[in-house]
Structure formats: structure tokens, C-alpha cells
Amino acid sequence: MLRVLLLRHAKSDRPAGVIDLDRPLNPRGRRNAPLMAGYLVTENLRPDHVAVSPARRTRETWEPVQAALGAPDATIVPDIYEAPDSALLKVVRATPDSARCLLVVGHHPGLQDVALRLVGSGPAAARDRLAEGFPTGALAVLDFDVETWAKVRAGAGRLERFVTPRDLDADEAA
């Protein structure tokens, strides 16, 4: 079995004069990134390969996750930035077969689109929530009953869960 963790960057700021690639996390994002990191630790969702968009907001989201998990260094993958689902699927399929769990830290709408393309089964409520949107800081966990990344196909994934920062933080839900 192979597992893909799709993590959208936490909430970012839009400072005047800063290009999109260099946008940092805002205060809510700086609070939610460690919250999601804690969730990954608690749920033992530990990647052995990590691909991160070069955008500042994705790298800032990854930092607390890496610190919390003691995870491997991330590979910065320029193809993730502003990527359509087809480009993200290529990133997934290019993962070394020695890895059993891949974490992709990226952006909307690409992450939602690739998740919807890959998911063929899983809890109906989670699939419905995923179809409605992929909020900042959200995490989709997809499992594939294959042995190599090259065999990951559309509709072959099982959405094991879909979690947002709001699900984990009572203050956020209020």
C-alpha cells in the first residue's frame, strides 16, 4: 500500500508589493500550521518523502511539520507551484519506490483537483467535504493498493480522511 498526504499551505498574507511566490503566512496560518503538524504526529501520519512548492507560504507551512515529525528534508519541486492536477499526478508518480508515504505541500485548486481525480472510494462524508473545497491548512489522506508510484491511477485511491484546521481547533470553529 502507498499513501499520499496532500497538505494545502496554511492561511497566507497578501502584503502590498510582495509577489505571489513570496507571500508569507498570516497570524492564523502561523497558528494553524503547527496545529496540523500536531495532528500528523498524533495520528502517526509520517511521510518518508516530501515534495513542497517553492512558494514561501508552503515552505513556512512545512517547517513546523518537519520539526514535529522529525521528517526527512523536503524536496522543493517547482512544478507544484500553480500546478494543475496533471502536473501534481506526475509529481506523485515520480516518487521513489523506496518511499511508502508521500507528503505534498501545495496549493488550491491543484491539490483539490488531483485529490478528486485520484479518489474512487472512501467515506461519503469525507468525499463530499473534499468536493466542496480544500481550505487552507487542510489535509487529504489517500491510500492506494499498489506497490509502485507509477501505478497510481485516477479513481484508484481511497480517501482515508479529510481534515481541516477548523476540525481540530475549537477557537477556529467558533
Topology:
Blueprint: E1 2-8, H1 27-42, E2 49-52, H2 56-69, E3 75-76, H3 85-93, E4 101-106, H4 110-118, E5 119-121, H5 124-132, E6 139-144, E7 157-163, H6 165-168, H7 170-173
Parallel strand pairs: 1-4, 2-3, 2-4, 5-7
Antiparallel strand pairs: 1-6, 6-7
Helix pairs in contact: 1-2, 3-4
Write structural notes for this entry.
The protein is an alpha/beta fold and 174 residues long. It has one domain (2-173): Phosphoglycerate mutase-like (Rossmann fold, 3-Layer(aba) Sandwich). It has helices spanning 27-42, 56-69, 85-93, 110-118, 124-132, 165-168, 170-173; strands at residues 2-8, 49-52, 75-76, 101-106, 119-121, 139-144, 157-163. A seven-stranded mixed β-sheet has the order 3-2-4-1-6-7-5. Helix 1 (27-42) runs parallel beside helix 2 and helix 3 packs across helix 4. The mean pLDDT is 95.
Attribute tags:
single chain, 174 residues, Rossmann fold, 7-stranded mixed sheet
The CATH class designation is: Alpha Beta
Name the overall outline. Answer: globular
Instruction: List the domain count as a whole number.
Output: 1
Q: Supply the helix-strand structural class.
A: alpha/beta
Q: Mean of residue pLDDT? A: 95
**CATH topology-level name:** Rossmann fold
Read across the widest sheet, the strand sequence of neighbours is 3-2-4-1-6-7-5
In the CATH hierarchy, the architecture is: 3-Layer(aba) Sandwich
Unreliable runs: none
Give the number of helices: 7
Report the strand count: 7
Taking the alpha carbons of the first and last residues, their distance comes to 38 Å
Any idea what the radius of gyration is?
15 Å
CATH superfamily: Phosphoglycerate mutase-like
Major sheet: size, sense and barrel closure?
Answer: 7 strands, mixed
Work out the strand percent.
15-25%
